[in-house]
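Entry for zinc ion complex. Fields follow.
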Amino acid sequence: MDMRSEIRKLARIEEGPYPFLSLYLNTKWDDEQQRERIRLFTKNQLKRIYDQLKDREDWRRAFVTDQQQIERFVEGLVRRVYNEEVNGIAIFSCSGIGAFLTYPSIIPFENECFIFDLPILQPLVRLSSQYQNTLVVMVETDSAKLFDVSMEGMMAESSIKSYVPGRHDQGGWAQMRYQRHIKDHMDKHHKEVVEHLTELFDSDKKRIILIGQDRIIANFKLFLPERVKQQIADTFSMDFSEERSKMLRRVFERLLQKEREEVSHQIEELKERTPMGGLATLGLNRTLEALNKGQVHTLYLLTSFSLPGGKCRRCGSLVLIHSPDESSVPCPLCKGKMKTINLGEEMVRSALRQDGEVKWVQENTILNANDGVVASLRFR
Ligand SMILES: [Zn+2]
């Protein structure tokens, strides 16, 4: 399952007459209480929503089925034995259209629950944008392991072993010949791993992380094609006998840091682009305009971004509303009726629907000075 394409599919779901329940859970069972906390959280949220739907009989009727399904599923989760590679789960349920979708994650979600006429995607998009799919290569002189890692966990693993002659206790020329011999074998092995890695890389562009001793990594990199080398997010050395979860933790830490550096660099660059009428927008008004025209390539949002907005029921345009009664004002573009929405969520959906990317930013001075939102554009 490729999370990015799954998210795009979710974003393209159209509003129907039934409610969508979105439930995000932290299922990292560090202690036994966590299981009980999750059981209780789910129960309370489902109750809260049931009560909240007292004036919407049609939704409430449909919701009762979702409620049962979710309760059964969560009970199963809570009873499950510990799996260190599933620390979070996103669940979307809409019994009205027979949808029940679950997405496990290696990174825990914060516990959240929403009811709306569409799946609430922000928490899922946020995590998936921060942790890109990655190929992790552990290289030694005579063996290598390749891991295909994504937010959902370890997707695939392969190992390559080749014969490298052992050391011999001889001096002088014989020793030098052996050293040469060993080096030739290591080169041959590294070339083989590079070939395998390049093939994987070309079939699906990913970030790359190299793990191994400096000297070995340096030799390995000599054989990497430039296009692969450019995607190296990090290299570090680590004891290969370490537990895999420790390796993964380190990989995810590095990915997050790399992503932050890149995003802040991209935003700098956007700011430089804007004054000359370049392909970028700063601030809410211009970015909304660009989203409504389908121009957005990448949307950058502060994680603290939270504003109500309006969405046209007819043309789908998004507008900023300054007060709740403004949602009764007709759409400025087509005069259609508006509904009140969470602007951040709908901006994300709109960007995804136009095949754009979304990046979440914790802290950034340029975003702070521009309503918490900027975007790069495909065209004007
Ligand atoms: Zn409209």
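NOTE: The two ends are 34 Å apart (CA to CA).
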